[in-house]
Amino acid sequence: MKNMFAIFGFCFFSIPVFAQQGFTFKEQPEKKQVDVLYNGKLLTAYCHYDSVAKPVLFPVNTVDGITVTRGYPVTPRPGERTDHPHHVGIWMNYESVNGIDFWNNSTAIPAEKKDQYGSIIHEKIISNEAYGDKASLTATAKWVNNAGVVFLNEQTTYHFKVENDIFIIDRITTLTALDKKVVFKDVKDGFFAIRVARELEMPSKEPGVFVDAHGNETKVDPSGDNSVTGMYYNSFGVKGDSVWSSKAPWTMLKGIKDGKPITIAMFDHPGNVGYPTYWHARGYGLFALNPLGRKVFSNGKEELNYVLAPGQSAKFAYRIIVASKDLSSKTVNNISRSFDKEKY
Asked: How many other CB atoms are there within 10 angstroms of residue 8's CB atom?
């Protein structure tokens, strides 16, 4: 007997479905970014927009898609703060490099003052590799003043991992002086940072005024919003506003966003200059560490003024994790110990 389906002309076959599993990269040169995808969903992107004056990771999402970074000034969202337009995603730079301010540079700086500011110019992506739950991307850049004079060459490798639904980012950066010494003056604003979403700021009842190295004031209003839920904790049990100017191997920020608990943690590495670092963690959403600015954080008891001689290099290794879960101090401490063992 002939097959019934053949008689009536039916043809049945299975169509394989190829889901994007693990990490993949999507290069978008026209947008000046490389998307970092996990299981086909965006976790972050390496971006080198001209308007931002430095390479950044933006946005930054949890594995289940909750965005933990502020959108302004790249993709503003309703209800966000619009202070400090130089705070974008995750970045690394500094307020005084041979007297030039790389930290505070943005499109908000008037043209007549641009000679006081510097930019980190992306050069090229050397490599990107994705393999399952791990991936890496390496890029080069130059630290230049407004006249185009190069102070530093930079090579940065990002290692991306997902473990237990925790997104882990390790940034390994080597800075190399050219034919002149480079002085990182001991100042407040630096060095490795993330600017978090409104919901992850700390609640505040009082306004704040923050002054940069040029005397420019930025006013920050009270939170005045019950959706603002953040709280800082460092590895020694220091909490809240007191984390600012504390020294510790790690600090975490906890809050609630999109109905889920969020934990963001940042880690210093024992091989870094100034370990354990001082924390430049502000309630309005700046979560940063600064190993090079000792004086302001120690009330004048320490001062560094870190110098790279001509041709000398320095390596900096930092970790950030983001998760849509309430991670315990024990869990974060275990992650810190694991990072300590990494040989960078």
From this structure: 7
Instruction: Report the DSSP beta bridge partners of residue 191.
Output: 93
Q: Tell me which DSSP letter residue 56 carries.
A: E
Whole-prediction pTM value?
A: 0.90
Rounded to whole angstroms, the Cα distance separating 119 from 141 reads: 10
Contact partners, residue 256, CB within 8 Å, separation at least 6: 199, 229, 262
As a whole number of angstroms, the distance between CA 327 and CA 318 comes to: 19
Q: What is the pLDDT along the chain (344 residues), one digit of tens a residue?
A: 444 434 434 443 444 444 579 999 999 999 999 999 999 999 999 999 999 999 999 999 999 999 999 999 999 999 899 999 999 999 999 999 999 999 999 999 999 999 999 999 999 999 999 999 999 999 999 999 999 999 999 999 999 999 999 999 999 999 999 999 999 999 999 999 999 999 999 997 666 655 555 556 666 666 666 789 999 999 999 999 999 999 999 999 999 999 999 999 999 999 999 999 999 999 999 999 999 999 999 999 999 999 999 999 999 999 999 999 999 999 999 999 999 999 98
Which of 322, 320, 325 has the alpha carbon at shortest distance from 336?
Answer: 320
Distance CA 223, CA 107 (A): 25
What stretches of 164-259 adopt beta strand conformation (E)?
166-177, 182-184, 190-195, 208-211, 217-220, 231-234, 250-257
**Cα–Cα distance, 230 to 244 (Å, whole number):** 14
| Radius of gyration, CA atoms only, the chain | 22
Length of the chain (residues): 344
What distance in Å separates the CA atoms of residue 62 and residue 227, rounded to the nearest whole number? 19
